[in-house]
Amino acid sequence: MRIFAFLLLVFSSGFVGTLLGYSLTRRRRELETIIHGLELLETEMLFAQNPLWLSFAHVGAKIQGNVGEMFNKIGAALAGGEYQDSGAAFKAVIGDESEKLCLTMEDKEILLALSSDLGTMDGQRQNRRLASAAGSLRTALLEAGETEKKWRRICNMGGWMLGMIFGLLLI
User: Fold this and answer.
1) d(CA 80, CA 28)
2) What is the end-to-end Cα distance of the chain in Å, rounded?
3) DSSP code at position 80
4) What kind and span of H or E run contains 85?
5) Percent helix, percent strand, percent coil in the chain, to nearest 5
6) Whole-number Å distance between alpha carbons of 71 and 118
7) Are 7 and 171 contacting, i.e. CB atoms less than 8 angstroms apart?
8) What percent of the chain has pLDDT over 70?
9) pLDDT digit string, tens, across residues 37-60
10) In which band, very low, low, confident or very high, does the pLDDT at 122 lie, cut at 50, 70 and 90?
11) Cα separation, 111 vs 1, whole angstroms
12) Torsion of Cα atoms, 24 then 28 then 33 then 35, to 10°
């Protein structure tokens, strides 16, 4: 009976550690989705030559989850005329969505720096800014991947080790 309890404790805590490790992928996935969204936005602005609010709405329709919702809300804010420029719309929406999105302050600053330039420059300069912001977010994505790997390993091994320690204490 004690061996069964020991094994149950070890495997359940190992499973919890593994689940915690996999939950750390959220920031990386959101950064990948934002980068994809910026690439779609660049395509919308360059080839379709839609107004900025319509480009955001189209990108938001193509992207799922919280990031797609963010693009939709920015498009709606720009279409409604609530804000004078895209920078103010971005700032308001990112502030509202900060609980839903798993972004660091640096990630938000990259997006806010980009937003102040959208709609105020010619097409080529806007595309360069979009590419620059996507590059900065790719660097953040690499950092997020490394952090995720490290903490996933810590959570995974920590769960198994805690299970073994508590199991040995109970025996």
Assistant:
1) 32
2) 10
3) T
4) none
5) 85, 0, 15
6) 14
7) no
8) 96
9) 989 888 888 777 778 888 888 889
10) low
11) 57
12) 160
For the chain, give the mean pLDDT: 83
Distance in angstroms (rounded) separating the CA atoms of residues 61 and 136: 24
Residue (of 108, 104, 58) closest to 78 by Cα position: 58
CB atoms under 10 Å from CB of 41, counted, come to 24
> How far from the centroid of its chain's Cα atoms is residue 126's Cα?
22
For 89-113, the DSSP string reads HHHHHHHHTTTTS---HHHHHHHHH
- Are 130 and 41 in contact, with CB atoms under 8 Å apart? yes
Query: What are phi and psi for residue 63, nearest 5 degrees?
Result: -110, 140
Whether the CB-CB separation of 9 and 170 falls below 8 Å is answered with: yes
Whole-structure pTM value? 0.78
* Cα of 159 vs its chain's centroid, Å: 26
CB 166 within 8 A of CB 9: yes
- Residue matched to tokens 């330039």: 117
